[in-house]
Amino acid sequence: MALAQVGITDTTFRDAHQSLFATRMRTHHMLELAAYLDRVGFYSMEVWGGATFDSALRYLDEDPWERLRLIRQTVVNTPLQMLLRGQNLVGYRPYADDVVDAFVGKMVELGINIVRVFDALNDIRNIERSAASVKRFGARLQGTISYTVSPVHSVDGYLDYARQLKDVGADSICVKDMAGILTPYAAYELVRRLVDEIGLPVHLHSHYTSGMASMTYLKSIEAGAAVVDCATSTLAMGTSQPASESLIVALAGTQYDTGLDVRLIRPAASILRRIIDDTPEYRDLIGNMQVNTDVLVYQIPGGMMSNLRAQLRQMHAENRIEEILAEVPRVRAEMGYPPLVTPMSQIVGTQAAFNIIQGERYKTVSNEVRAYIRGEYGRPAGEIDPALRRMVLGGAAPVTSRPGDGLSPELPAAREAVARFDGSEEDAISHALFPKETENYLTRRLALRNAVGCGSTQA
Q1: Taking the CA of residue 55 as centre, how many other CA atoms within 13 Å lie in the half-sphere pointing to its CB?
Q2: Nearest to 317, CA basis, from 286, 354, 349
Q3: Contact yes or no for 257/251 (Cβ under 8 A)
Q4: Where are the extended beta strands (E) located within 2-158?
Q5: Are 259 and 41 in contact (CB under 8 A)?
Q6: How far is CA 73 from the centre of its chain?
Q7: Angle between helical axes of 97-109 and 425-433 (0-180°, round to 10)
Q8: What angle do CA 328, 333, 335 make, to 5 degrees?
Q9: What is the structure's pLDDT at 329?
Q10: How far apart are CA 73 and CA 286, in angstroms?
Q11: Is the pLDDT confidence value at 2 over 70?
Q12: Could you tell me the CA-to-CA distances from 301 to 183, 231, 305, 323, 393 in Å, in that order?
């Protein structure tokens, strides 16, 4: 595909619906749009990864592997892209290396061309194995910086990390601004230095939550960004990405012209609008499309906010949301300023909720916070509060090895577990990642197969 001056990655099938209606878009609805979006000429389409994998199993009774297979059969012109959480893959903890290799190999086999790999702590050790697998199986590796603002994060630090990403084989660098807090002029400086000093194409991913993303994209493009992430207008703005159509028109006739025809997106936008109108499940879940500048203070991504509100509703404590939001920055500082992206956003948010609802800070320390302080998620960017560290570790030293080291192979047990369901290698990989959700899905699938089989025999 010949690239225009500026490329657009379309996020409609992954981050857009993940941000706006809790990752609930069904595969058959995606397939109604896929051929139209494939004709536009996007640099790539992000269609898989992130929370879409477990949501398919957990909420939609769908096989995420089959989704990828069907999209690849329909999207024949545009490279397919996915989001990978490094050693955590699409889950919430580090997995053994055999699972990493099998997962990456299978998704590339089924059609993924570009893999955007990130780590919540920007710890290169959590990137190394998945990066090596991406390269070995022949996909393009996009090394990703999880962007945040704190006393321990700086442009120089991000440049150092980008060099490490280049060293493990990155073909491009992505700045992942998951909370929408990257300001236009900060973006200009960061992108310009990445372009000048790293020498790889720079891609930018941001969310419209704070209202700055379009301005940030424009300054990033002026600084040399090669590709930016956008969504079909029907699923743009709010906690999603800027609209593709708006950016295409804004850049038309300039030296940054995308070369795309905005009219080609109209059928997909119209069909998607009709799908949302006709699907109560989507309408009930869809997030607030308005700008929320609280993110500039609390740095809470849209997905984290929706999850936090859902948890508080279950605890009948939604009236405590403002107190909890104010507690999040305190917990984050005490934990060494981790970027608030999966899984750290959930870990910090849950602990903040415990601290407020129980009326005593750290009366309960979550298992995930304990694992983080033990070093099981990787190396914190800053120092952990000494009192909190002593509470969790006592006099013990934290783990300093790569989080994937010491994990025994997990696929043999997963293959054995799915055998009774007549499971495939894809099912075994799913089971290694999400055992409970996969077994529930396979149980329903086997019952349906048996019912269909009995019906055929009787006929």
Answers
A1: 18
A2: 354
A3: yes
A4: 7-10, 44-49, 80-84, 114-117, 140-146
A5: yes
A6: 23
A7: 130
A8: 95
A9: 93
A10: 28
A11: no
A12: 15, 17, 6, 17, 29
Note whether 128 and 101 are within 8 A (CB): no
Amino acid at 170: A
Q: What is the pLDDT of residues 111-134, one digit of tens each?
A: 999 999 999 999 999 999 999 999
What element of type H or E holds 206? Answer: strand 202-206
- What's at 276, amino acid-wise? I
Residue pair 311/353 in contact by the 8 Å Cβ criterion: yes
The token pair at 364 is 């309960």
Element (H, E) at 269: helix 266-278
Angle of helix 435-458 versus helix 411-419 axis, rounded to 10:
30
Q: Kindly report, residue by residue over 338-377, the tens digit of the pLDDT.
A: 999 989 988 999 999 999 999 999 999 999 999 999 999 9
CA distance 309 to 314: 9
Instruction: Answer whether 0.90 is exceeded by the pTM.
Output: yes
Start-end of H helices in 302-410: 302-314, 321-334, 344-357, 367-373, 386-393
* Rounded to 5°, angle at Cα 179 from 240 and 185: 100
**Which structure tokens are listed for 325?**
């939001």
Distances from the Cα of 134 to the Cα of 9, 121, 140, 200, angstroms:
19, 20, 7, 17
Q: How many other CB atoms are found less than 10 A from the CB of residue 395? A: 5
H or E stretch at 203: strand 202-206
Two structure tokens written together for 12? 């409609």
CB-based burial label for 149 (10 Å; 0-12, 13-18, 19+):
middle
The structure tokens listed for 411 are: 């696929």
Instruction: Please return the burial class of 308, using the count of CB atoms within 10 Å of its CB with bins 0-12, 13-18 and 19+.
Output: buried
